[in-house]
Each structure stands twice: as structure tokens, then as C-alpha cells.
Amino acid sequence: MQLDGPGLRPLSGGTPAELIVILHGVAASGQAVLWLAQAWRELFPRAEFLVPNAPFACDYAPEQRQWFSLQDWTPKILLAGLRKADGILDAYLDELLDSRKLDDSRLALAGFSQGGAMALYAALRRRNRIAGVVSLSGFLPETSEFLSDIRNTPLVLLVHGENDDAVPFTAMAGAQALLKAANVPVKAVPRPGLGHIIDDAAVALGAEFLGFALGLT
Questions:
Q1: pTM for the full model?
Q2: Is 97 within a domain?
Q3: How many whole angstroms separate alpha carbon 205 and alpha carbon 110?
Q4: Which residue in 17, 211, 214 sits closest to 97, CA to CA?
Q5: Pairwise CA distance, residues 25 & 113, whole Å
Q6: 217: pLDDT confidence band, cut at 50, 70 and 90?
Q7: Which residues pair with 132 in a beta bridge?
Q8: How many CA atoms lie within 13 A of 128 on its CB side?
Q9: In b/e form, how buried is each residue of 22-32, taking b as 16+ CB within 10 angstroms?
Q10: Mean predicted lDDT score pLDDT of the chain
Q11: Is residue 147 included in any domain, yes or no?
Q12: At CA 206, angle to CA 122 and CA 35, rounded to 5?
């Protein structure tokens, strides 16, 4: 199964020097987070941005997409969903890097909500360490089985609204604890008063982090 979706070529023209892949949440598509690529594009003029559509039809909105089912939030069920989707996403990332003659050190992932969970898992499972991953309102399955899946330790930024009514704010602390247990360098930033959205502050935090992770600032 191959992924598709919109993207933005480097503003500088020519071959990209960095690749930033942004993953959407459940019941959405790549188009839903294309604005985030547009917001970051001017800051990274040599980067190519890809915003792939998730591989599966959404359980409750078949015209939209999902990375895995969220009908059951049992940690082991979530982990199984992440593992299945990661096989597809990982092959997609391999193809992107190979076709652009880039290695994993020039790759960064970002994602919102379910896409944040997917970006985290994919980054931690890569055979080679990527530059970094930004998870906005994301989560991880809080089970010790997850730790055995981790292959490397990329830089991680977690940003989460304290008033999130879709993915509880406590999910950030849970993910942070798991990552610290695996010696993954992680920074967690709570956003007071913020719900299940990406605000200007989160956009700025993500941009600053990506610049640092990719060695551009």
C-alpha cells in the first residue's frame, strides 16, 4: 500500500536539503495540515514538505482517513494499530529519502493528535536515527511493550493544550515518562487554556525545535 497526499517543494528550488513530513489526525487528510507546512516553509527554504494521507478509511467517517482505529483505547490495541500503520509509513519514508538522496539525519517528522502519535512511533522505530519529531496534542500507548519497540532516540518535542477535550492533557505526561524511561531526549511544553488545536505558539515552538534538530539554527 502506497501513501499519497499534497506537498510543497523547496522555496529555494532544486533538490531538497531537508525533508519534513507532517501527519494529520483521525477523520482528516493531508490537506488538513498543509497549512502547517505553509507556515514553516519560509523558515526552511531548502526543505521539502510532505503531508501524506493516512492509509485507512476512518471508522466513523469513511470519506476521511485514519492511521489506525481509535474505537478501543486499550494500550495494547493502540500499539497494534501503530505497528500496522508504521510498516506502511516506514516504507514510504524510505522511498522518499532514497529518491531524494537524503539520509535519515535530514528527516524530521511532525504530527497532530493521532498523527502526533504516529510521528512519535515512526521516529522511534526507524532503523536509523532521524533529526527529530514534533508531536502536537499526541499520545503514546502507555504499556511496557511499547518500550521494546524503540530502536533509537531522536530529539522529541511534545506540545499539548491543558484544556484538550479530545486527547487528555495527561497523555503528554504519560508519553514523556515513557520516552524518559527509554532515554529519549524529550522536551514537553504545556499550553495553558489551549484545547485540541494548534495555536501560533505551538507553530513557533515547532519551528524553533525543527531548526535546532536539523542543525539549521
A1: 0.98
A2: yes
A3: 12
A4: 17
A5: 5
A6: confident
A7: 108, 155
A8: 11
A9: bbbbbbbbbeb
A10: 97
A11: yes
A12: 90
| Residue 77 grid cell | 490495541
- Residues 108-134 as b/e (b if ≥16 CB within 10 A, e otherwise) read bbbbbbbbbbbbbbbbbbbeebbbbbb
Q: How distant is the alpha carbon of residue 101 from its chain centre? A: 22
C-alpha cell at 178: 515513557
Give the whole-angstrom CA distance, residue 175 versus residue 171. Answer: 6
Count the domains in the chain: 1
Instruction: Indicate whether 2 belongs to any domain.
Output: no
Q: Residues with Cβ < 8 Å from 118, sequence gap 6 or more?
A: 23, 54, 67, 68, 82, 85, 86, 89, 111
Strands 65-66 and 56-57: antiparallel
Its domain, for residue 163, covers 7-213
Is residue 2 over pLDDT 90?
Answer: no
Q: Kindly state the cell numbers that stand for 194.
A: 489551549
Q: Which amino acid is at 126?
A: R
What is the C-alpha separation between 30 and 14, in angstroms, rounded?
Answer: 23
Here the cell at position 98 is: 532514497
Single-letter amino acid code for the residue at 83: R
**C-alpha radius of gyration, the chain, whole number:** 16
Supply 118's cell numbers.
504516529
- The CATH number of residue 160's host domain is 3.40.50.1820
